[in-house]
Design goal:
This protein is of the alpha/beta class and 118 residues long. It is 44% helix and 14% strand.
Length: 118
Amino acid sequence: MLQWHAQSLVAALPPAQGAVLLVGGSNARRWTDVGESFPQHRVINRGFGGSELPDSVFYADRIVIPYAPRLVVVYAGENDLQLGKSAESVLAAFQAFHAKVHAALPKTKIIFLAIKES
């Protein structure tokens, strides 16, 4: 039921396109004033706590593609490393995210913010 409701809501109120979209884990989610930090840009925050990069790949059809952003800022990977995943697997997950987004939105630019030590 919740999934249907979310899809219906997106269909009824389509998201603004061409914005800057922030995705990733709790550090992205907690960046609540990102729009104030970059007032010259329309910024949409779709970070969700506890996420790993494969989650962003899996949910890209919900958290990225409908927005058709001009730029996606990815702030993720710390949770992956904290759970013992290798740097190579984090890279592979980012490459999968990049490929999935560019398959649907080839002109969208993607920036990966460096992971900080937590």
